[in-house]
Amino acid sequence: MRRLSKPMFENYQTESFYDEMFGADGTVRAHCAPLLERFSSIDAGEFENRRQACDAHFLRQGVTFNVYHDDQGTERIFPFDPVPRVISADEWDHIEAGLSQRIIALNLFLHDIYHDQQILKDGVIPACYIEEARHFRPEFRGVNVPEDIYIQICGSDLIRGDDGQYYVLEDNARCPSGASYLLENRNALKRAFPGLFDAMGVRPVDAYPRELRRMLEFISPHREGDAVCVLLTPGCYNSAYFEHCYLAREMGIEIVEGKDLVVLDDFVYMRTTKGLERVDVIYRRIDDDFIDPTVFRKDSVLGVPGIMQAYRAGNVALANAVGTGVADDKAVYHFVPKMIEYYLGQEAILPNVPTYLAHEESDRKYILDHLPELVVKSANESGGYGMLMGPTASKAELAEFRAKILEDPRNFIAQPVVNLSRCPTWCDGGFEGRHVDLRPYIIYGESVQIVPGGLTRVALNKGSLVVNSSQGGGSKDTWVLRA
After folding, report:
1. To the nearest whole number, what is the mean pLDDT of the chain?
2. Is 394 exposed, middle or buried (0-12, 13-18, 19+ CB in 10 A)?
């Protein structure tokens, strides 16, 4: 660590939290020193001007997200903080190794439970956790997927505790969102602080769309020529519609809705001005429930009737595969370290947050006895919904969740409150610490590729541990430094 003159940080307090830039004694972490030195040469007025330049970039680019059930309008500019989170090369090597290990084990697990179910027969995971998982698709047992890869795109959320250790908070294996914000955060900061990236040796992230397209082509069942790939969106009212358009454009593929596709003789075709064109690979941003009304939800108008028959026949590939949602289940998450040991014979490089399963009698008793001290989560909710923050919950909220747990214990887990690490954040003309997490993006095709960085989400509300954009969070650029 180094001690530098830091005029704009004179009143900055790390308090008792792990800070990404400063040690507990106020000295700057060595890999952050060049950034702090550069920021220390900028006064508050100029920094605010550069922050506003970032906002203007997002406005011009239409970088927005939708919040469901929000009365203030359907779209918002994604909140962005211009102070990047900096990760050293050694730290990133550790993260990369842990994420690679995890996605390989998760894919072996998914192949197993949709074929032999050996991990259940061996008692490593009680069968009830799979059979009762909301997103387990038993009707697709025995269906083979290209290259035996189920999760081609994953966004595992990482947090850092007071001990400085990275933990996996959850795996997003169905339709992980946010990659477009990662890319646009980088573009905005390059404009606001030109020259800083090369000076600090920041690794680029702009290969993500290219690697994503390469992965889609790799899983194509149609190898005689160029694969026809499309991105299937629910439409403009989806919370991530900006991202759908952005990624399709960056990959150079068509964005389609369900009405643009038709199934004939177990093949999927796209309607075009020149007639029907066969589709080989679909990067779907629609959950299983809505993708085919003849198999799943009969009332869905978002999907394509018959697409599952084409999928079963091996005539179209889906990324991610049908049934991956069982790996998103927060109760199944508890068993991922055991999966790693079972399939790979290794200890997990990145540990889980300690997790109590309400379905287990002893765990349930502990949860109910310590409800005000725990974070309780619904097994299949996301975006900060279906969650109880015990220490800040009212008596009514505690009573409500107690009743829910007793009514449906399989659907709930609990974890101790982890004091997320903090990062300096620009707040009303000065720097204050705000809690952050990290969502790196993993692409699994011919090999495992991990974007050197990820989406750092920041809880902009003072004291909040909830980083989700739908709950008042924003984001930062994430810099991984070269060795």
Report:
1. 91
2. exposed
